[in-house]
Amino acid sequence: MFSGFRVSPLRHLAVAAAMLSGMGFLSPASAATVTAKRAVVLGDSLAAQMCGGDQQAIPTRTAKLIDVGCYGWPGATTTELRAYVDNASYRSAWTGMGAPNARFNLRQAIAAADVLILSLSTNDAKRDTVLYDTGRWPTGDGPWPYNHVPVDNGWFNQQIDWWMQQAQGKPVVWFDIGCRTNDSLFLYAAMHRDDVLRNAMSRWPNLRVVYWGGEISAHPEYLKDEVHMTQAGLDARWRLAVEFANK
C-alpha cells in the first residue's frame, strides 16, 4: 500500500514516543527532566568544605540537589550544632567553633528540605580523646583516659535520635568518620561512633549511612591531612551525597 515510501529512523522514534505518551507510559516532562531533591547540608569543617567555605552553598554542578541550605562550621559536634538549631543565639564555649551566619535559620532550612545531609561525629570522636573540664564541655561517651575502654552511656544514640526526629521521616544521609591517623585513641573513638551510627539504622529506616571510612581506606588520596579532603575527596563526597540522597 505504501510501496516506495520510506520513513527515517528519527521519524520512527518520534512516532514511538508519541504512542507511549498516549498510552501513559511516557510524558514529555518525565522524559526530559528528573525531579531534584531539596537538600540541606549541615555539619563540621567537612561540611564547610562541601559548602565552599564562606560561600555556604551546594555547588551548582550538583544538578540533582536544590540548595535549601549548606552550613558547616569547624569544630561542630552533634550536640553543639543541635544547640544552634534550638537557639540561634547559642554560642559554643569552644572558641574553635564559629557561629552560624545570622541570616540562616537552621530549623526552617531542615523543615523546607526533602533530604537532610549530615557531616557530624568526627569532632565528637575528637572530643572523646581530650581530657577536659566537664563543666565547660558537652557530656558524651567520654572523655576517656588513655588506655581506658569507654562505657557507652547512650549519649550518642540520644543525639542521633534527636537529629532523626528533626527530619520527621524524611531521608537523612549521614557520613561516618573517615580518617588517616596514627592516634590510636582517636581511631578507637571513631570506630565506636561509627558502630553506634550504623546500629541506629535498625531503628531509623530513613537513615542512610555513607561509609566514608571505607572510601578513605580505598582512596587515601582523598585526604590532605587527618580528616580534611583533597579536591578528589571533595568530588567523591558530593558524588556519594547525591547518590544516597536520591536512593
TrEMBL record:
Lineage: Bacteria, Pseudomonadati, Myxococcota, Myxococcia, Myxococcales
Organism from which the protein derives: Melittangium boletus DSM 14713
Cleaved signal peptide residues: 1-31
Protein's recorded name: SGNH hydrolase-type esterase domain-containing protein
Gene Ontology molecular functions: hydrolase activity, acting on ester bonds
Keywords linked to the UniProt accession: Signal
Coiled coil: none
